[in-house]
Structure formats: C-alpha cells, structure tokens
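--- STAGE predict ---
source: upstream dedup step, 1 unique chain passed
mode: sequence only
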Amino acid sequence: MFTGIITGVGRIAAIDDLGSSRQHGKRLTIAAPSGYLDDVGLGDSIALNGACMTVTSLDASAGRFSIDISAESLDKTAGLAEPGPVNLEKALRPQDRLGGHLVSGHVDGVGSVTKMRPVGESWELAILAPRELGKYLAYKGSITVNGVSLTVNTIVDREDGTELSINLIPHTVDNTALHALQAGSRVNLEIDLIARYVERMLGAGKVPAS
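--- STAGE serialize ---
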C-alpha cells in the first residue's frame, strides 16, 4: 500500500529487453536520489509513477535499483517504456502518516493531459480519463496521477471520456515529475479504493439481464 505522497523523483536510466518477442517484458534501471535507497532491500515494493514494482537488484551506494516489468504491465501503463523522470514512493509502513489517501499501486487506466497551465501561483492540470473510470470520479474526491495523490476540482463528462481538472500547488510541481507534463502527455490513473468497493457492494448479488 501507498499514500500518493511522492518521496523522491528518480530517472529511468536504462531499459533492457527480457526477451526477443513482444510478449517479453523489460528490465528498468532507475537512478534514485542520494540516500534514497539506504533503507531499501531486495524484494521491497516501490511505486514508479503510481505502478507498484518489486526491487530485483540493488546498488545502494551507486543510488540505483532495477525492476522487471511484464509486457502486460507496459501495455497498461504510461511513462515506463522510455528513459525519463519518474515519481517514486516506498511502500507504506504501519507507523507512517497517511498524508494522501490509500493507494494500491495498481493502475486503473491511462489518461491524456488536455491542459497544463499556470493559474496565479499554482498550475491547472486537466486530464481526459477513459469513459469507464468516469463513474468513480467525484468533486473533491481523490485520484492518483502518476503516483501523486490529488484532489479533483471539476468533472465534465464527454462522449470520449471524462475530463477532470486539478489544482497543483508549487510544492507539488517542484517536488514531483508532474512538472514535465504537457498537453498530450499520457498519465497513469488510479481511482479511489473506496469507490471501487462501493461499486462492488451496491452491485453484489445482482444477476445481469440475459
């Protein structure tokens, strides 16, 4: 489990094939901030842009670790198939503060940035989410964008999906990889865990019409 509070910004430094076919995944080597890996061990979970991954090799002194990502995961996420900055968050410990909201690290869909513009001292981030995720989005509700816990400010249902807008304060822009987003960027989205359970509880026991 995670909280959506980014604890470091790393960079995908190398990408290696795990096989010769499209069914094979990749091995990613990530350069982490200085000292970030001091309390990390092999097998630990770290979220990369909101996707939970397992540390498969580690060189803490060099500030690098590797993860293996399947072809299926690459197909269902964004920003993990090419070099560049990534948001990092270590798995939640029982004694940690829950500063954001409960995040599983499972990407529910990939959205597209429609707007990233300064508004006063802050930034407005607008994203077109897949239509199937629209029912889980609520005004002032939580959503995870590339691993960052954020609050939904507006929602507009469209024929091609649901557009939501988010206000980013300067601290968030300066301390995450969200500053690199622009119109057209693809982003990983995870809906609020509570919304998923509410849907299941309301629909449990209902038999689909034949």
